[in-house]
Amino acid sequence: MAELTFRSPGVGTTEIDLSGRTTRGPQGVPAAVIGTADQGPAFVPITIASYRDFVTEFGQTDGEKFGPLAIQQWLANQQAGTYLRVLGAGDCKIRTSAGKVTNAGFIVGSQQVQAGGTVTNNVHAYTGGPAGRTTFLGCFMSESAGSTYFSEAGFTHPPAPATTAAVGSIPIIRGVIFVANGVVLTLSSTVASDNTPATGSATTATKASDAANVSQGALIGSVDTSSQQFVMLLNGLKQTDAEGPNIVTASFNPQAGNYFPDVFNTDPLKIEETGHFLYQHYDVYNSHAIITGTVLQNTGVAVALDNNLEQVAFVTTGALLHNIGGTTQPNYEGFENRFTHPFSPYVISQKFGGTPQNLFKIHCLNDGVYSNNRFKISIENIQKSNNPNIKFGKFDLIIRDFTDDDRNVRVLEAYRGLSIDPSSERYFVRIIGDMNIYYDFDQRVGSQKLVASGKFVNTSNYIRVEVAPAVDSGDIDKTALPIGYRGPYHLITSGTDSSSNPLIDSSGSFSGIINYVSASVVQRAQTPPIPMRTTIAKGTGINKSVDSQLYWGTQFEPIDSLTEPNKNNAPDIQKSPLVAFTKYMPEYQVTTQNAWVGDNAGTNDEGSIRLDSDTYNNNMFTLENVQIATNSSDVVDDKEWQAALYRRNAALASSVTKLDGTTQSGRFLNVEKDFGDLASKKHYKFSFFVQGGFDGVNIFNEERSKMLDVAIRRENGDSTNQGGVAGCTTAAYIKAIDILKEKSDTDIQLLAIPGIRQTQVTNHAISAIEERFDALYIMDIEHRDAENNVITGSDGQPNVTYTSNLFKARNIDSSFAAAYFPDVVVTDPTTNTNVQVAPSVAVLGAFGLNDSVAHPWFAPAGFARGALKASEVAVKTNRSNLDVLYDASINPITVFPGRGGPTVFGQKTLQAATSALDRINVRRLLIEIRRKVRTVANSFIFEPNRETTLARFSGVVNPILNRIQQQQGLVRFKVQIDTTTTTQADIENNTVRGKIFLQPTRTLEFISLDFVVSNAGTEI
Known about the structure:
Elements lengths: L30 E5 L10 E3 L2 H8 L7 H10 L5 E5 L20 E2 L4 E2 L5 E2 L13 E10 L26 E10 L4 E4 L32 E5 L4 E7 L11 E5 L8 H4 L7 H4 L1 E6 L7 E3 L17 E8 L17 E2 L11 E6 L2 E10 L10 E9 L10 E8 L9 E8 L9 H5 L3 E4 L10 E4 L9 E5 L1 H4 L11 E2 L4 E2 L27 H4 L14 E2 L6 E2 L5 E2 L25 H4 L13 E2 L23 E2 L3 E3 L16 E2 L9 E2 L5 E2 L2 E2 L2 H4 L11 E3 L13 H4 L3 H9 L1 H4 L5 H14 L8 E3 L6 H14 L3 E4 L20 H9 L8 E5 L2 E4 L6 E4 L1 H15 L8 H4 L6 E2 L5 H9 L2 E5 L8 E2 L15 H19 L8 H20 L3 E7 L7 H5 L6 E6 L20
Parallel strand pairs: 1-3, 1-38, 29-37, 38-39, 39-40, 40-44
Antiparallel strand pairs: 2-3, 4-16, 5-6, 7-8, 7-14, 7-15, 8-13, 9-11, 10-15, 11-12, 17-18, 17-25, 18-24, 19-20, 19-37, 20-21, 22-23, 25-31, 26-30, 27-28, 32-33, 32-36, 34-35, 41-42, 41-43, 44-45, 46-47
Helix pairs in contact: 2-16, 13-14, 19-20
């Protein structure tokens, strides 16, 4: 706004716009909800002020999860709600000495819960089969003409046969497949004796080599080199199962209609039906490499096989037995880890003394899988200081939608003009934040607690930064700038250790079958290199020009053209070649070799096993590897950026081609020489990804993966196989309750765990709330059907009598809990669909309504304050049903004709004895008074223990109770805090004692009217 100035008398007017949306913090004491969510931190209670804030923190409702719907109902009338998200944390205890978390995650190929709720063999496979394995699907490939796809990544080609000088093809892993219990994968082959899947048990094979005992198929398979088509056999999978065909035909070509990720099963819940689950896949386009194995022929020359078939596909597993790892050999089946959050590799500086320095890395605020491919990070506008008195440069950090492309950037958050100077107001840690709040499970029971580390509050909704110690201490070279990133975590499969032990199993299995490929060749199978932007040019030949919108670093779009690598824009997340590299693989092992390694620059190789994440496939990126054209002064030529090339192996190309067609050797970018050039600053930018988010749950079991009530029931019904109270689902909810039990960490007035009905959790919740003594638990109960069987889902009609009898048999005696029946139907605000939910979802909304129109000491029931935001009830009840429920201290939810939707028609607590405290409004009255008086009492701590202080204390408490009396909460009261309650002995013990006498206002719940009919002439 321009400032007004006056030179002669007059009136000036301006506008000051204060009408924008303001952020308002939580107001009042929150209700707490424990539940699942799409995103957000796990096991950290977060208090929000509105549903909009909840969506920002935890994501939208989805028509399935009850927790988000419950908090939405509460926040419709309140301005403070606390949500605690649960994820898989196993038994919620410290890790074992081997590094795993008991009962966390899953084991590939293990027995799963079947329809009856017990853990048994896969019913879709023949009995007697082995445990399923993590199986690697691959093919032999060579670089296409003109391509340097493999060579620049540092791939070592297997030696060609002695009879030819040709370079051997490279075994490339194209897919990671989890195989179901009882199933063994092989491939159809022209040299196999039988290509029909086994019609019985797939033997007791536990390694890929043992699969040779299954006479059907082979470990080396035939590929049609024209279509890249192959056939996978699922030995042991029942042929008669319509949902699990045991022959799958697909192609390795990403541009084919039957590309194998589009054909294979990608739903983990269907692993047993289909015999397999494709966990991740790697795209390799024909423009960069072709499938071939002709140079591996023993004759040393290409051999024309029938129908263009070559034996160039392979499947293999880890070298050791199922779910076993060694000192240098990974366990590829064990995913027994608690939840993790996604993270990035370290962002690095230019080289100092020949070595780049770590600056910072990015951590997602969201735990779990969700954020693995929700956004990417870009660093841009990197500029060194041109001020001789200021050494530090500046840069921008951008958080972008993962599915955008560089020509259509969708910015989620942007932080401009950042500095690595810790004393600067624009210090990037201060601007973005580095606060890490988490629950520390890796402590002994009794020492676990919420932990907060970091100096600066997080301002981002997505990330926090972890700063390298040398940066935070100011010891980093002041000219350092972020110009690249370390190699991300990578899957290790290639090589043998110093004792010649292989990582993957090919011992004698491949050579002997067809006398075609030696075991040592297959043992060198590895994943493709991470795609990187090799040029920021568009077009070809004389039409070639720079595209200043393009970012260096990771290329998120498919690279399906060698001559125009930037032609393809693919915003579809499923078509991004980066998705495979974001997925979690086991990295928690302490005593054995991890399958997934990173953040380990400088680590020495073990034998021929490449561990260093920087040198693995040359996956480290730095702008110092961009070869540029220069002018006569050896300064970057800002008009020749179309000639720039990224050289991931740090080896200069023979030349770069300028616009006029001439060539020059050029040189690599140099921070000191080039990063002060403002004209070229727009090209100093790069992008990278985050990886490694894991939910810590069993992805093959729907109830456990969604952490549903039925999973708790099964864990405790089959404690030997499913963990009991230490089972992943049970333990998660119990731990969440324990976190909220700690009064010093959270202040709550209500607790709901929507949809969780099992006694192991609900009893624990009652005990925790009683220990808090300042909140009420809104409880969901188990339902029984007409056959007196427990209902484990939304299907089945609850029977009022059996449900009430089951609940009464629990003999609960607590005024700090209230139970409701039946379920209700609400409308999901995101999907706009009707969802049947546990009663606590809508009842929490009724409590919010009650407190917004009245006070906590009013009954949250009846037509005025108990009307629910629900369309119908799951069970229609009559007067007899209502009596049965109320006799069992279950508060009915019912619909009265002509009176609108469902209404809460009861307000009993679960106290057994008849007293004022068997009503919700009285219990909440006392909770409210205790909270208010406690707040006042805290202000008198450390005051002189004198009679005048006692009088002041009493004088402050009286108005509080007087106000509640005026608001119909109390009939009468008396406050006694004086020398009659506080004796000389108390004074000598630094204690004040007082008594507060209360007579609560009772509610009107029963109305009895006699209608007298008289004869004519009788006086009325």
